[in-house]
Protein backbone atom coordinates (compact mmCIF):
# COMPACT_ATOMS: atom_id res chain seq x y z
CA UNK A 1 0.00 0.00 0.00
CA UNK A 2 1.30 3.50 -0.77
CA UNK A 3 2.55 5.72 2.02
CA UNK A 4 0.38 8.60 3.21
CA UNK A 5 0.42 11.55 0.83
CA UNK A 6 2.21 14.65 2.08
CA UNK A 7 2.06 17.67 -0.26
CA UNK A 8 5.46 19.08 -1.24
CA UNK A 9 4.35 22.23 -3.07
CA UNK A 10 3.18 25.23 -1.09
CA UNK A 11 2.13 28.42 -2.87
CA UNK A 12 3.26 31.75 -1.44
CA UNK A 13 0.74 34.47 -2.22
CA UNK A 14 1.79 37.45 -4.27
CA UNK A 15 0.65 40.86 -3.01
CA UNK A 16 -0.70 43.47 -5.45
CA UNK A 17 1.61 46.42 -6.11
CA UNK A 18 4.30 44.83 -3.91
CA UNK A 19 5.42 41.79 -5.89
CA UNK A 20 6.34 41.88 -9.49
CA UNK A 21 5.10 38.75 -11.28
CA UNK A 22 7.61 37.39 -13.78
CA UNK A 23 8.20 34.25 -15.80
CA UNK A 24 11.83 33.50 -14.87
CA UNK A 25 13.75 33.33 -11.65
CA UNK A 26 13.47 31.27 -8.48
CA UNK A 27 10.02 32.65 -7.63
CA UNK A 28 8.82 33.12 -11.22
CA UNK A 29 5.74 31.58 -12.81
CA UNK A 30 7.81 28.97 -14.69
CA UNK A 31 9.47 27.74 -11.51
CA UNK A 32 6.19 27.52 -9.64
CA UNK A 33 4.44 25.65 -12.48
CA UNK A 34 7.35 23.19 -12.73
CA UNK A 35 7.01 22.58 -9.00
CA UNK A 36 3.32 21.83 -9.54
CA UNK A 37 4.20 19.47 -12.42
CA UNK A 38 6.61 17.60 -10.16
CA UNK A 39 4.00 17.40 -7.42
CA UNK A 40 1.39 15.92 -9.78
CA UNK A 41 3.89 13.45 -11.29
CA UNK A 42 4.89 12.29 -7.80
CA UNK A 43 1.24 12.01 -6.77
CA UNK A 44 0.43 9.89 -9.84
CA UNK A 45 3.47 7.61 -9.58
CA UNK A 46 3.55 7.05 -5.84
CA UNK A 47 -0.08 7.40 -4.78
CA UNK A 48 -2.72 7.07 -7.49
CA UNK A 49 -1.18 4.46 -9.82
CA UNK A 50 -0.27 1.97 -7.04
CA UNK A 51 -3.88 2.09 -5.81
CA UNK A 52 -5.22 1.54 -9.34
CA UNK A 53 -2.84 -1.42 -9.78
CA UNK A 54 -3.88 -2.83 -6.39
CA UNK A 55 -7.51 -2.67 -7.46
CA UNK A 56 -6.65 -4.46 -10.71
CA UNK A 57 -7.58 -1.59 -13.00
CA UNK A 58 -4.29 -1.20 -14.85
CA UNK A 59 -2.73 -4.64 -14.66
CA UNK A 60 -1.43 -6.22 -17.84
CA UNK A 61 -1.40 -10.00 -18.17
CA UNK A 62 2.08 -11.43 -18.68
CA UNK A 63 3.24 -15.00 -19.23
CA UNK A 64 6.23 -16.93 -17.98
CA UNK A 65 6.83 -19.95 -20.26
CA UNK A 66 9.14 -22.58 -18.79
CA UNK A 67 10.75 -25.65 -20.29
CA UNK A 68 10.80 -28.13 -17.40
CA UNK A 69 14.34 -28.59 -16.05
CA UNK A 70 13.60 -30.93 -13.17
CA UNK A 71 15.58 -32.11 -10.18
CA UNK A 72 14.74 -35.55 -8.78
CA UNK A 73 12.21 -35.51 -5.94
CA UNK A 74 14.00 -37.56 -3.30
CA UNK A 75 13.93 -41.36 -3.77
CA UNK A 76 10.97 -41.24 -6.18
CA UNK A 77 11.53 -42.21 -9.85
CA UNK A 78 12.83 -39.21 -11.83
CA UNK A 79 11.86 -37.84 -15.22
CA UNK A 80 14.27 -38.24 -18.12
CA UNK A 81 15.52 -34.75 -18.97
CA UNK A 82 15.51 -33.72 -22.62
CA UNK A 83 16.68 -30.49 -24.23
CA UNK A 84 13.21 -28.96 -24.39
CA UNK A 85 11.01 -31.37 -22.39
CA UNK A 86 10.91 -34.06 -19.74
CA UNK A 87 9.75 -37.62 -20.40
CA UNK A 88 8.67 -40.49 -18.16
CA UNK A 89 11.11 -43.40 -18.45
CA UNK A 90 9.57 -46.29 -20.45
CA UNK A 91 9.66 -48.95 -17.72
CA UNK A 92 8.65 -46.65 -14.83
CA UNK A 93 5.00 -46.47 -13.67
CA UNK A 94 5.61 -42.94 -12.38
CA UNK A 95 8.01 -39.99 -12.46
CA UNK A 96 8.50 -37.00 -10.17
CA UNK A 97 10.57 -33.83 -10.10
CA UNK A 98 10.67 -30.19 -9.09
CA UNK A 99 12.14 -26.90 -10.31
CA UNK A 100 12.68 -23.46 -8.84
CA UNK A 101 10.85 -20.52 -10.44
CA UNK A 102 11.12 -16.76 -10.03
CA UNK A 103 8.21 -14.41 -10.66
CA UNK A 104 8.14 -10.65 -9.99
CA UNK A 105 7.31 -9.78 -6.40
CA UNK A 106 3.71 -8.83 -5.70
CA UNK A 107 2.18 -10.11 -8.94
CA UNK A 108 -1.09 -12.03 -8.91
CA UNK A 109 -1.06 -15.47 -10.51
CA UNK A 110 -4.00 -15.92 -12.89
CA UNK A 111 -3.55 -19.39 -14.39
CA UNK A 112 -1.32 -22.39 -15.00
CA UNK A 113 -1.05 -24.04 -18.43
CA UNK A 114 0.76 -27.34 -19.06
CA UNK A 115 1.55 -28.65 -22.54
CA UNK A 116 2.71 -32.14 -23.45
CA UNK A 117 1.20 -35.53 -24.15
CA UNK A 118 0.45 -38.73 -22.27
CA UNK A 119 -1.14 -42.05 -23.06
CA UNK A 120 -1.92 -43.15 -19.50
CA UNK A 121 -1.70 -42.07 -15.88
CA UNK A 122 -2.48 -38.97 -13.87
CA UNK A 123 -0.25 -35.94 -14.44
CA UNK A 124 -0.12 -33.34 -11.65
CA UNK A 125 1.68 -30.01 -11.96
CA UNK A 126 1.55 -27.71 -8.93
CA UNK A 127 2.89 -24.21 -8.33
CA UNK A 128 3.92 -24.16 -4.66
CA UNK A 129 5.56 -21.87 -2.16
CA UNK A 130 7.36 -22.35 1.11
CA UNK A 131 8.61 -19.83 3.63
CA UNK A 132 12.24 -18.85 3.09
CA UNK A 133 13.30 -20.23 6.48
CA UNK A 134 11.26 -23.46 6.19
CA UNK A 135 8.93 -22.30 8.96
CA UNK A 136 5.48 -23.85 9.00
CA UNK A 137 4.27 -27.29 8.10
CA UNK A 138 5.55 -27.53 4.53
CA UNK A 139 4.99 -26.31 1.01
CA UNK A 140 1.70 -24.61 0.24
CA UNK A 141 0.07 -25.42 -3.13
CA UNK A 142 -1.03 -22.28 -4.99
CA UNK A 143 -2.35 -23.62 -8.33
CA UNK A 144 -2.63 -27.24 -9.51
CA UNK A 145 -3.26 -28.55 -13.02
CA UNK A 146 -4.16 -32.12 -14.01
CA UNK A 147 -4.95 -31.30 -17.65
CA UNK A 148 -2.86 -30.72 -20.75
CA UNK A 149 -3.41 -27.84 -23.14
CA UNK A 150 -6.03 -25.96 -21.11
CA UNK A 151 -5.21 -23.20 -18.61
CA UNK A 152 -6.35 -23.84 -15.03
CA UNK A 153 -7.35 -20.62 -13.26
CA UNK A 154 -5.99 -19.79 -9.84
CA UNK A 155 -8.60 -19.79 -7.10
CA UNK A 156 -8.73 -16.60 -5.04
CA UNK A 157 -5.98 -14.00 -4.76
CA UNK A 158 -2.71 -15.90 -5.35
CA UNK A 159 0.13 -13.40 -4.81
CA UNK A 160 3.86 -13.91 -5.21
CA UNK A 161 5.63 -12.83 -2.02
CA UNK A 162 9.38 -13.07 -2.62
CA UNK A 163 10.36 -11.45 0.69
CA UNK A 164 8.79 -14.22 2.76
CA UNK A 165 8.49 -17.20 0.36
CA UNK A 166 10.33 -19.14 -2.32
CA UNK A 167 8.35 -20.57 -5.24
CA UNK A 168 8.70 -23.80 -7.20
CA UNK A 169 6.89 -26.29 -9.43
CA UNK A 170 6.38 -29.98 -8.78
CA UNK A 171 5.62 -32.23 -11.75
CA UNK A 172 4.59 -35.82 -11.27
CA UNK A 173 2.81 -38.63 -13.07
CA UNK A 174 1.43 -41.79 -11.47
CA UNK A 175 -0.35 -44.88 -12.82
CA UNK A 176 1.41 -44.82 -16.18
CA UNK A 177 3.23 -48.18 -16.19
CA UNK A 178 2.52 -49.02 -19.84
CA UNK A 179 2.15 -45.49 -21.14
CA UNK A 180 4.18 -42.55 -22.31
CA UNK A 181 4.20 -39.06 -20.86
CA UNK A 182 6.01 -35.88 -21.86
CA UNK A 183 5.81 -32.33 -20.54
CA UNK A 184 6.91 -29.65 -22.99
CA UNK A 185 6.05 -26.40 -21.26
CA UNK A 186 4.57 -24.96 -18.08
CA UNK A 187 3.19 -21.46 -18.57
CA UNK A 188 2.18 -19.19 -15.70
CA UNK A 189 -0.05 -16.20 -16.48
CA UNK A 190 0.18 -13.32 -14.01
CA UNK A 191 -0.59 -9.63 -13.63
Describe the structure.
- With 191 residues, the chain is mainly β.
- Helices cover 14% and strands 38% of the residues.
- Strands 1, 3, 4, 6, 9 and 11 form a 6-stranded antiparallel β-sheet that branches. It has a 5-stranded antiparallel β-sheet with strand order 2-5-10-7-8, with no helix packed on it.
- The longest helix has 27 residues, at 29-55.
- The protein is rod-shaped.
- The mean pLDDT is 90.
Structural class, please? mainly beta
The rounded Rg comes to: 27 Å
Measured distance between first and last alpha carbons: 17 Å
Question: Which range does the strand content fall in?
Answer: 35-45%
Main pleated sheet: 6 strands, antiparallel
Estimate the helix proportion, in percent: 10-25%
Q: Which regions contain 5 or more consecutive residues with pLDDT less than 50?
A: none
What oligomeric state is this? single chain
Question: What's the average pLDDT?
Answer: 90
The number of distinct β-strands equals 11
Continuous helix count: 1
Task: Characterize the overall form.
Answer: rod-shaped
Order of helices and strands: HEEEEEEEEEEE
Amino acid sequence: MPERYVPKFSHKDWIDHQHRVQAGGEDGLNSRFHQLEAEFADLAQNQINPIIEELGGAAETRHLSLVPALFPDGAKPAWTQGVDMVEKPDAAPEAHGFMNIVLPDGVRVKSLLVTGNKSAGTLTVTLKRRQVGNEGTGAEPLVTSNVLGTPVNAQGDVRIENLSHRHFLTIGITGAANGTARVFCVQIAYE
